[in-house]
Amino acid sequence: MVLKEEQRDLFLVPKEYSLVYTVGRDFLVKKSMGAKMKNRYPTMISTVKRAYKKAKDPEIRCIGFKPLKEDRYIYNLLVKDKLLQTTTYEDIFDALIQLKDDMRVMDVKKIAMPKIGIGDDGLNWAKVKETIELVFDSTDVEILVCTSILDKDNEYIEPETNKKSKVEYKEPEVEVEEVKEDEE
Q1: Nearest 5°: CA angle at 105, between 101 and 109?
Q2: Chain segment 2-40, per-residue pLDDT in tens
Q3: How many alpha carbons fall within 13 Å on the CB side of residue 8?
Q4: Which of 49, 121, 148, 155 could lock 27 by a disulfide, CB 3.0 to 4.6 Å apart?
């Protein structure tokens, strides 16, 4: 297994890489990578959702989608039940095990993904990366982790295109005690 991290746009990786991202079993995508995937592959979410419901197996953690005009798979890692739930390291591990099995069956040797689990889920990338390395350790799979950068206005800048896309950012709520000056 080879794991590389590069600052680049996930959607501009060579076609021999299948793409991987995480989504909830409710298949709701509101922002970030899920929204980008839905915009790029408009029929994917409904197709994957139908496949998941048809399988009637709550243990499914990975569903592949093959776009008609591309010679690669898009792997949907089902890591939580609902959009607003938090993903756990165990969820990531279980999904990666199923991903590895599916890749073996479909003879997929290269995948590209964002840093999964670290956005709204708040997982530690070093631990997620360890999990990826553990799962794929004895394989001949090449994994490319694509990272974007944020500018001062919290907009993603995709490195190869310099294209910006707004990120929903909310300042943390902090209780501030109002201090009144003594009147003399």
Answers
A1: 80
A2: 999 999 989 999 999 999 999 999 988 876 788 889 889
A3: 13
A4: 49
Using CA atoms in the order 127, 39, 147, 171, what is the torsion angle rounded to 10 degrees? -80
Whether 98 contacts 61, CB under 8 Å: yes
Residue 164's pLDDT is what?
56
136, 137, 113: which is closest to 125 by C-alpha?
Answer: 113
Q: Which domains does the chain have, with CATH numbers?
A: 2-166 (3.40.220.10)
Q: Hey, what amino acid is at 135?
A: V
Query: What number is the average pLDDT over the span 108-113?
Result: 98
Q: Name residue, tokens 């922002």.
A: 31
Kindly give the pairing relationship between strand 142-147 and strand 149-150.
unpaired
Rounded to a whole number of angstroms, the distance between the first and last alpha carbons of the chain is 72
| C-alpha distances out from residue 184 to 177, 181, Å | 22, 9
Q: What is the pTM of this model?
A: 0.80
| CA gap 107, 90 in Å, rounded | 25
